[in-house]
Amino acid sequence: MDDNLQRCCYDLEFTVASNLVAISSGTLLYQVLSKDDPSCKTFVYRLDVPVTAGWISLTIETRIKLAYALARQWFGVYITSETPNDDWLLDGLAGFLTDTFIKRFLGNNEARYRRYKIVDALYYNPSFTLSILQKLGVATEIFNLWFHMLQQTKKSGARANSKREHEKKVSYLGLTSLLSLPAQGATYCAWCF
């Protein structure tokens, strides 16, 4: 069903807090109120116009970008950077909240996969990957989140992230590949050297 020539009318499910209403294009088929604590409502819409699966994946990417923009705006109301060099704090907090959004609504596997793709690209072509991240304006956000995750520990003192040996190796290989870059080419990421 991932072919652009194959279209179908999808049923879309949105689960929200019981005091909210989910609005979508299409026709509302039904809504279900859960008895869980806290209670929530699930709205099911059917798209009236057949669309491709690519349209649905664009919706997910748009939600992630919107989550980042809203988080940055929300933190920006409460935190004002003294200089442009202090924007890393807003980027880091917004990135952390966006990663939390991805984990909660798309699952841990999707969040890990997205981080792994970036680390893998850094290892195989660090200068190109950094230039792309810089053009997208997410380099600082990604590195802040990465370093934050590497430092997180549980109450027991064990690492909270990168439990698997392979994740640790890939993460360290990605970071060490950055050391091969000339310092003047990485001025936007000078704090990580």
List keywords for this structure.
single chain, 193 residues, mainly alpha, 2 domains, three-stranded antiparallel sheet, 3 strands, globular
Account of the protein in words:
There is one protein chain. This protein has 193 residues and is mostly helical. The chain has two domains: 1-51, no CATH class; 58-179, no CATH class. The protein is built from six helices and three strands, in the order βββαααααα. It has helices spanning 53-78, 87-106, 108-124, 126-136, 139-151, 165-178; strands at residues 11-17, 27-33, 40-46. Strands 1-3-2 form a three-stranded antiparallel beta sheet, with no helix packed on it. It is globular, with a radius of gyration of 20 Å. The N and C termini lie far apart (45 Å). Mean pLDDT is 75; it is low at 185-193.
Short overview:
The chain is mainly alpha-helical and 193 residues long. It is built from six helices and three strands.
> How many separate domains?
2
Structural class, by secondary structure, is: mainly alpha
Our count of helices gives: 6
Question: Would you list the SSEs in sequence order as H and E?
Answer: EEEHHHHHH
Please give the alpha-carbon distance between the first and last residues: 45 Å
- Basic shape: globular
Order of neighbouring strands in the sheet with most strands: 1-3-2
The largest sheet, given as strand count, sense and whether it forms a barrel, is: 3 strands, antiparallel
Question: In percent, how helical is the residue content?
Answer: 40-55%
Write the layout of secondary structure elements.
Layout: E1 11-17, E2 27-33, E3 40-46, H1 53-78, H2 87-106, H3 108-124, H4 126-136, H5 139-151, H6 165-178
Antiparallel strand pairs: 1-3, 2-3
